[in-house]
Amino acid sequence: MKKVRKERKNQRVSDMFDRIRGAARGNDPIIPLVLEAVKVDATFGEIMGALKGVWGEYRLPTVF
């Protein structure tokens, strides 16, 4: 992972996260952007982090 992150074009990856966050705030399709992000070597964790920053983290309701 360190090698991939070092060799990728980080500005392109960062731009993809901005586009993903923008789509998550609106009604734009996210999956095509996720696929583009993977093609520029974004990791699953980074992509999920971008989405989590907009949507937060789901927590199951506690039922007693």
Rounded average pLDDT: 93
Q: How does the overall form come out from the CA principal axes?
A: globular
Q: How large, in whole angstroms, is the Cα Rg? A: 14 Å
Number of helices: 4
SSE string: HHHH
Low-confidence stretches: none
| Proportion in β-strands | under 5%
Counting copies of identical and different chains, the oligomeric state is single chain
Describe this protein's structure.
- With 64 residues, the protein is mainly α.
- The protein has one domain.
- Helix content is 67%, strand content 0%.
- Helix 2 packs antiparallel against helix 3.
- The protein is globular.
- The mean pLDDT is 93.
Topology:
Blueprint: H1 2-7, H2 10-25, H3 31-39, H4 44-55
Helix pairs in contact: 2-3, 2-4
Give the key terms.
single chain; 64 residues; mainly alpha; globular
Summary, kept brief:
The termini are far apart. It is built from 4 helices and no strands. Helix content is 67%, strand content 0%.
